[in-house]
From TrEMBL:
Residues 167-316 form the N-acetyltransferase domain. Keywords: Acyltransferase, Transferase. PANTHER family: AMINOALKYLPHOSPHONATE N-ACETYLTRANSFERASE-RELATED (PTHR43877:SF2), AMINOALKYLPHOSPHONATE N-ACETYLTRANSFERASE-RELATED-RELATED (PTHR43877). InterPro entries: Acyl_CoA_acyltransferase, Bact_Acetyltransf, GNAT_dom. This is Acetyltransferase (GNAT) family protein. GO terms for molecular function: acyltransferase activity, transferring groups other than amino-acyl groups. The keyword Transferase applies. It comes from the Bacteria.
Length: 323
């Protein structure tokens, strides 16, 4: 499907970050009532080592010159799973949504051919209330796969809680390469059990962390059981403007699960956030996770404020003409 008459596209650069952020936040507010996208989210999309903004991303402009749509491919590790993202301005961007989705899918097929893959998996996400976008996603060949939840709880009255027997929690040392390697090893090993986890090697992970706008190292925790590293929790600053703490990643190694380690990490983080004056804490979780992570969060007093559906389809590599 082509863009309507009068619409045009450009390739984004980092100079477009403020305009893209404004559009994504307008889309957030229309969908959930809150502007949750942060500067780091846009920056990550524009600087990913496995995505080229000059080939894999588009900005769509309405006939009056307003930015109406923003589309990009998200692929954290260069593997065979490509997440296609389309955001449109709620007031004037709708005409660009399906054309941008089709452009992304065509590009996914091209990328598969460039990598020498016969096919790849494309994924897309939408809130259940985004009826028009879901219709476009399904019309483009996607089928429902699973559901995520955006969770939150108040930090009012939260104080430090006792730890389970044998469990200790400490900060990671950002100046100690060995400790950072340990943190990454636990993070990477723990998430291998999660659906859709896309591994990054240590150097790629360090580059990702270095590219963040800010890192609150006093909110990155390592849990140990009888002195053995067992789990990690990584926080992010993406919702500070709302005075909301954010649990970016939490994982516990398989051999230490169901021993209270995940809950202990959460409660410890909550108390640190509360001591800083944060009003609430949030995170996102796969409701179909084999580790049943949602149960840990529910037990810790969190509840879903909205849910998001994930759709997927297999995309065959674009056939290339022989010379």
């Amino acid at each position: 499907m082509a863009l309507p008459d009068g619409w045009s596209t450009l390739r984004p650069t980092l100079d477009d970050l403020p305009a893209i952020l404004d559009l994504m936040r307008a889309s957030d507010i229309a969908a959930t009532g809150e502007a949750e996208t942060g500067e780091d989210d846009v920056k990550a999309a524009l600087t990913s080592p496995h995505v080229d903004p000059a080939r894999d991303c588009w900005l769509a402009y309405a006939p009056d010159g307003q930015l109406g749509g923003w589309a990009y491919i998200d692929n954290e590790n260069g593997g065979d799973r490509e997440f296609v993202e389309v955001f449109v301005h709620p007031d004037h961007g709708a005409p660009s949504r399906r054309p941008l989705l089709d452009m992304l899918l065509h590009r996914v097929a091209e990328r598969a051919a460039e990598r020498g893959s016969a096919e790849v998996v494309a994924k897309a996400g939408a809130l259940p209330t985004e009826i028009d976008y879901i219709a476009d996603i399904k019309a483009a060949g996607f089928q429902f796969e699973k559901r995520y939840a955006r969770m939150r709880r108040s930090l009012d009255g939260v104080t430090p809680a006792p730890l389970p027997a044998g469990v200790t929690i400490r900060l990671v040392d950002p100046d100690d390469d060995e400790d950072l390697r340990l943190f990454h090893r636990v993070y990477d090993t723990g998430f291998r059990d999660a659906h859709d986890y896309q591994p990054r090697d240590y150097d790629s992970w360090r580059a990702y962390v270095a590219g963040l706008t800010s890192v609150a190292w006093d909110e990155w925790f390592v849990a140990e059981v009888d002195g053995v590293p067992a789990g990690v929790l990584m926080s992010a600053d993406q919702l500070l403007e709302h005075n909301e703490a954010w649990v970016k990643n939490l994982t516990v190694l398989r051999e230490f699960r169901r021993r209270g380690v995940g809950g202990a990490l959460l409660r410890h983080a909550f108390s640190v956030y509360a001591a800083k004056g944060r009003a609430q804490v949030g995170l996102g979780v796969d409701l179909t996770s084999p580790t049943k992570a949602a149960n840990v969060y529910l037990t810790a007093g969190m509840s879903a404020i909205y849910e998001a559906d994930i759709f997927q389809q297999r995309v065959k590599a674009l056939a290339t003409r022989s010379s």
